Amino acid sequence: MLQTLMKLVLIAVCSVSGYFIAQKYSFPLSLIGLISGLLIALIVIQIEQTIRKLSLKVIFGGIIGTVIGLLIAFLFAYGLRFIPAIEQQKAVPWELVYVLLTISLGYLGLIIGSKKGDEFQLPVFSQSKGQAKENADYKILDTSAIIDGRIMDVCDTGFLDGTLIVPRFVLDELQLIADSSDSMKRSRGRRGLDILSKMKNSGSVRIDIIDQDFPKLKGVDAKLIALANKKKGRLITNDFNLNKVAEVQGIKVLNVNELANALKPAVLPGEAITVRIIKEGKESGQGVAYLDDGTMVIVDHADKLVSRNVEVIVTSVLQTTAGRMIFSDLKEVLNKQNRASQN
User: Fold this and answer.
1) Rounded distance between C-alpha atoms, residue 310 and residue 276, angstroms
2) How confident is the model at residue 86 (pLDDT cuts 50, 70, 90)?
3) Are both 102 and 184 inside the same structural domain?
4) Is 59 within 8 Å of 120 (Cβ atoms)?
5) Are residues 140 and 227 in contact, defined by beta-carbon separation less than 8 angstroms?
């Protein structure tokens, strides 16, 4: 709000100043002065917005490059006057030569300096330990993790510290999903926005929404990886493909699904558990049940026991990237088999 007010004040001051400076001349010139002041204000605002996106190294490099370019232009133009062959050419427009050299070499110095600015290793640009630690605490949220919602529960328990960053382009993607014509997508987008609002209001963890963007990159995933590289932070996602791409590029990833799998209670072969058969399985004689954490349990000899609670013995556990799958058999069936084998 304050920045917007300052911009309006700048536009007003420049416009009025341009009008009064040209007022002593005829009416058309005073109007031109007003328009010129307005244009100058807009140019200054645009320059300010551009500079704000640049790092201090790039700005410093651009300034140094420009100064060196102007100095070379001055020395070159001044030195030309001492070359006898050129000195005899009285018709040489030295003012024009100096202007052209100043513009061309100054611009060249600006471009080279800004491009090479990131290579400066001056003490003023070195990161303090506190800043490095702060960057390491940055955790960047992607759309899938926000919509999933479990990250809010993790934050509420206090297991996550540091700062959670939500880029503006992720927020825009959530808004786009929330405005979708597809009812399922629309509900997912609105859920994500609601969860983000609750997390921000709860105060359990600091959430910063940043406007930093990467216009040259297409796709939210590519921008997230670029931002994680720039901030030296970690990426929080449920997206399997984004997870793998980020790991290949050396970015640390916090996957909520992997965290959930790690926190599931261990179930070992031979352990007895009680489950409720929900439906028949794909294979003949199998029934399907689920644990409270959503783990699928395949039960042999249970196809006729749908909607009944049964006691089963775990025979094996299959762990995949998608989660766990438990294979089991009815306890009474295994007991009968054991008694038969003993006889």
Assistant:
1) 6
2) low
3) no
4) no
5) yes
